[in-house]
Design goal:
493 residues, mainly alpha, three-stranded antiparallel beta sheet, 6 strands, elongated, disordered N terminus
């Protein structure tokens, strides 16, 4: 959950602004109390203008006036807390919300406000208690459901998060924030198409919601929609120039790099490093893009910088070694990749790179040994398997455990916990992600080669798990979700 203000990934802290209810409560008050009303109104006006420091000063005067009713004082404390929150004085804001609740313990808005502030301090468990209290006081408080959904998502309790978001979207169907929050939760569960659906809707409702563009940029990147990812990142930057620029520049740089848009990618990596001069990931990925474009000296400098920042980074040694190989400095590369393997002896990437160096040095037996270890450690390393086939050497058996029976040669394996891919021995190098829309394991239903204008494209239809649960009479029923994915047969998706 971001710390930028105002945060539209949550429904923001709400002011009471001492409106008609305050006026009614103030009727018949003494002259001193009239001054309270005046200061409170001036504070509310300052809040609306974004003059939060002035608002706090005016509320300070109001709070210091004697003989103010509990209701009025509670409202002033609440609004002063909002102003302090806007000024990033989060702990002080919580103190004011506490005072407001002590004076008037049945105001749902203040509990919601305090919950949002607690989220900013990194206390989602405590925040949930406040959102629960707000909902108990007002069962139709859509903002509290939305914010509770974000809190549950922060705790990775996604089932509870989706329940809250479902209620929020029902109550706030024309509000962008709940769809953005649910979209982000889908994204965190690797349900990228479901996330895209929600984020598209969020942006349609509010085309100026920077958080939704930021999240959609990340989703599009994961789906391989790199041009769209770059466009969304740009839109997010334009809408909120003061947000965390480094993260968005990094995302956009990665999107450009994935498309080998060299100039644009390098420019964004440069921007990241201007903002965070010791960000090792940016040096690493800029180095990879430089090496891909045969800028070997510059790439080596970047990998060297990574090692200055992180002396035990095995990947940096391995990639620097590979770059030296490309730069016809195989002997120097050999030294680097050996250090990588001392740091991480079972790293399949480093083993494959050392195999490449051995092959360049005509040390075929050593190359075969490294390729075989790499292929055994990472069954998805098709580069190592292809190298073995070219050397006419034995290829280790595929140790991947398929889920279910093959369909048309396609098998599903779990690449990492909760992340599934389909592969086919007839299409070496092709890995098709099997995104789940619910619980359970994916199951291939059908496989087709598309024809006509779409020839060269494959399509897998599969059971993507339960999409949602709903009440069917006295029982709950889980609807099954069928999904399809299309991909080019000539290479990776």
């Amino acid at each position: 959950m971001g710390r930028n203000r105002p945060s539209k990934s949550r429904l923001r802290i709400k002011t009471l602004l001492l409106g008609a209810a305050f006026v009614a409560a103030a009727t018949g008050m003494a002259e001193a109390a009239d001054q309270v009303l005046l200061r409170a109104r001036e504070g509310a006006a300052a809040m609306l203008r974004g003059q939060y420091d002035r608002a706090v000063a005016l509320y300070d005067e109001a709070v210091g006036t004697p003989d103010v009713s509990k209701f009025v004082l509670a409202s002033i404390y609440s609004d002063r807390g909002v102003a302090k929150w806007q000024m990033k004085q989060t702990k002080e804001a919580i103190d004011d919300f506490n005072e407001s609740i002590q004076l008037a313990p049945d105001n749902a808005i203040v509990y919601n406000n305090r919950g949002n502030a607690l989220m900013d301090l990194g206390h989602p468990e405590e925040a949930i208690k406040d959102f629960d209290r707000a909902i108990a006081l007002d069962p139709n408080y859509g903002a509290a459901y939305n914010n509770r959904g974000n809190a549950y998502a922060a705790l990775q309790n996604y089932d509870a998060a989706f329940q809250s978001f479902r209620k929020a979207t029902a109550l706030l169907s024309r509000t962008a924030a709940p769809y953005n929050g649910r979209g982000r939760a889908h994204m965190e569960r690797d349900r990228y198409h479901a996330a895209l659906r929600d984020l598209d809707r969020s942006i349609k409702i509010d085309p100026k919601l920077a958080a939704a563009y930021r999240n959609r940029a990340a989703v599009n990147f994961e789906l391989g929609n790199y041009a769209e990812a770059a466009e969304d990142a740009t839109e997010a930057l334009d809408l909120e120039p003061e947000q965390d620029k480094a993260k968005l520049f990094m995302l956009r740089a990665r999107a450009y790099a994935a498309e080998n848009s060299f100039r644009e990618g390098i420019a964004d990596f440069d921007r990241v490093l201007d903002l965070e001069p010791e960000k090792a990931d940016a040096f690493m990925e800029r180095g990879e893009l430089l090496a891909k474009n045969k800028r070997y000296d510059a790439a080596i400098r970047d990998f060297t910088k990574v090692l200055e920042l992180e002396p035990k980074n095995a990947k940096a040694y391995a990639l620097r070694g590979e770059t030296k190989l490309y730069d016809r400095k195989a002997d120097e590369g050999y030294i680097d990749v050996n250090i990588a393997l001392i740091l991480k002896p079972d790293d399949p990437q480093a083993l494959r790179i050392r195999g490449d160096i051995f092959r360049e040095q005509n040390r075929t037996e050593n190359a075969v040994a490294d390729y075989q270890r790499a292929a055994a450690l990472d069954p998805f390393d098709d580069d190592a398997r292809t190298a073995l086939e070219r050397l006419r050497a034995p290829v280790p058996p595929d140790t991947r455990k398929p889920l279910g029976e093959p369909v048309g040669g396609w098998i599903i394996t779990e690449k990492s916990p909760g992340r599934y891919v389909a592969t086919n021995a007839d299409y070496r190098g092709l890995t098709v992600p099997m995104e789940m829309f619910g619980d359970g394991k994916p199951k291939i239903l059908a496989w087709d080669k598309l024809k006509g204008a779409q020839s060269g494209i494959g399509q897998l239809r599969y059971d993507a798990g339960g999409d949602f649960r709903h009440r069917n009479g006295a029982n709950f029923q889980t609807d099954r979700s069928e999904h399809s994915v299309e991909f080019l047969l000539g290479g990776a998706t």
